[in-house]
Amino acid sequence: MKRTILDAHVHLLMWKQQAEPDWNSVSQTLKVANFNELDAICITEHIEANAYEKLMLGLFCSNRLGGSTQGDGSVICNGVLVLPGAELHLANNMNIGVHADLETLLSLDRRASAYTLDTLHGLLEKRGRPFKLVAHHIFWPGKTCSDLEALKRCINAIEVPAKDLTNIHKYLTLASTLNLDTTGGSDSHSFISIGACKTLINEDNTHSPLTLKKWLHSHHTTHEPDRDSLRLTALARIHRQTDTERREP
Q1: Is the pTM here over 0.85, yes or no?
Q2: CA angle 152, 212, 132 (to 5 degrees)
Q3: Residue 242's pLDDT is what?
């Protein structure tokens, strides 16, 4: 049985306020993903980020990194399959990873709090195209959701986030209660912590590589934290804080 390894929660913009993607930084991040033996990454960039559309169009339409474009709209860059996605801030403040084709993602309202979980799910179902919704770091302070019925109706998986592994039992209990899969995500905003928590997909067909369609229809995914997850996420926080201080006058 083939085991496909991906990071299901990756940002390629350091900050939401960035006007343009830093393509050199994006390329370096993908090289590190390959070095960390990831088969794929999901670009769940904040949809309200200023450069979200430029990033996604550059990756998947203009092919700014000179990757190998796939027939399903994904692209292979530096040996890593790159899949389109978005992170949405919902009306109740929880964060949702939306995994879908690029056209669907670009059709969404990019304003923060534009959707409830039910309205987002209903809109995606109405479009009639495959999609996957993942609850991101749902036990992170201010990002929680107590409506278990809505989660069960709308969510496909519960993320186990690299930045909150001390509370891993909460995520696993919730996934078990709702009978949902888990995914692993680094929530990385730079190359430092990419792959700090991984998603594992076990596939019966060892000759068939992962595609966007297979990812959107995947079941029985699980998570696997990197043995250095705590150190990597700590270093990533320091890196972002240092960048913040550098930007301040």
Answers
A1: yes
A2: 10
A3: 77
SS3 (DSSP) at 208: coil
Q: What is the pLDDT of residues 177-200, one digit of tens each?
A: 999 999 999 999 999 999 999 999
* Residue 141 neighbours by CB under 8 Å, 6+ apart: none
* CA-based R_g, the chain, Å: 17
Question: Which amino acid, residue 111?
Answer: R
Indicate the DSSP class of residue 66: -
Residues 6+ apart with CB under 8 A from 35: none
- Residues 97/185, Cβ–Cβ less than 8 Å: yes
| Beta strands 181-185; 132-136: pairing state | unpaired
For the record, the structure tokens of 87 come out as 């992170």
* Domain 2-247: CATH architecture, name and number where available: Alpha-Beta Barrel (3.20)
Is residue 139 a contact partner of residue 170, using CB atoms and an 8 Å limit? Answer: yes
- In the three-class reduction of DSSP (H, G, I as helix; E, B as strand; rest coil), residue 159 is classed as strand
pLDDT confidence of 203, banded at 50, 70, 90? low
Q: Where are the beta strands (DSSP E) in 186-241?
A: 197-203, 222-225
How far apart CA 43 and CA 7 sit, in angstroms, is: 9
pLDDT value of residue 50: 98
Distances in Å between the Cα of 56 and the Cα atoms of 28, 177, 228, 229 are: 17, 35, 30, 27
Residues 6+ apart with CB under 8 A from 28: 191
